[in-house]
Amino acid sequence: MKQLVIKAFGDASQLELVERESAPLATNEIRVQMHFAGVNPVDAKTRAGLGWGAEAIKDQLPWTPGLEMMGTVLELGAEVNIYQVGDRMFGLLAGGGYSEELVVPANALLRVPGSVSDETAAGLSLAGLTAWQALTEQGLLSAGERVLISAAAGGVGHLAVQLAKNLGATVIALASAHNHEFLLGLGADEVLDYKDAAQLSALAPVDLLLDLVGGESGISLLSRVKGGGRVVTVPTITAPQVIAAATPLGLTATGMLKHNDLQQLAMLMQLVVEQKLRVEISHVYPLAEGELAHRQIETGHTRGKILLQNELLDV
Question: Whole-prediction pTM value?
Answer without folding.
Answer: 0.96
